[in-house]
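Standup notes
- HV: blocked on the assembly model, inputs below
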Amino acid sequence: MPFKNPRVVATSPDPAYWPAADLPEFLFAGKSNVGKSSLINALCGTKKLAYVGQTPGKTRMLNFYEVNEGIRLVDAPGYGYQKTDPKRNIDFGTLMERYFDLRSNLCKGILLLMDCRRDVSEDDRLMKQLADEFDIPLLVILTKTDKLNTTEKKRKPALIAKDLGIAESRVLLTSSAKKEGTDQVMQRMLAMK
Ligand SMILES: Nc1nc2c(ncn2[C@@H]2O[C@H](COP(=O)(O)OP(=O)(O)OP(=O)(O)O)[C@@H](O)[C@H]2O)c(=O)[nH]1
Ligand SMILES: [Mg+2]
């Protein structure tokens, strides 16, 4: 069952326009094009909530979505995408700094998304460090598992967990395209809120 009654509550890089600090939040982070917006849509049972694009860098600011389960999903821009428009966009580091400074106490989990076919990047490691620094639980979501065969699906979580130095139970496999693993992600989020 997807999250109920998903709605956009804010879309801005400016904290003045962010929602009141009154609900547990989950931050969706990861390299550009990894499937953050697609996963949010899959969890919410819609294709239209978060903007999904063919070219990297579609999500440019923090997008806050609220669901009836009493949590907010926060869609972050992807890192590793350089083409910022200086007039309209602030860089990823500044945006994350703002978010963590103001809302790290609200953030009950960072969902660090990684393409299941790739290795851990330096930016992924930095994100993990941020989670440690602010004492926020981390869930690693390996995305696009429809691109992996069964053997690789079995192997990959342990490899990534070892590389990042986290428990294998913190690594989940998902395919937003096939709606696989999404129920498990929701259950974990609700248990963390
Ligand atoms: N095969 C497959 N493709 C996927 C899956 N999830 C997302 N994609 C594709 O990956 C591309 C990027 O998806 P987005 O959800 O926009 O990724 P994002 O991480 O939000 O990207 P940015 O906002 O640019 O950082 C799109 O072409 C999606 O259709 C999946 O589970 N399987
Ligand atoms: Mg996006």
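- HV (later): unblocked. The domain at 7-192 is CATH 3.40.50.300 (Rossmann fold). The CA atoms of residues 38 and 60 lie 15 Å apart.
- Next: hand off to the docking folks.
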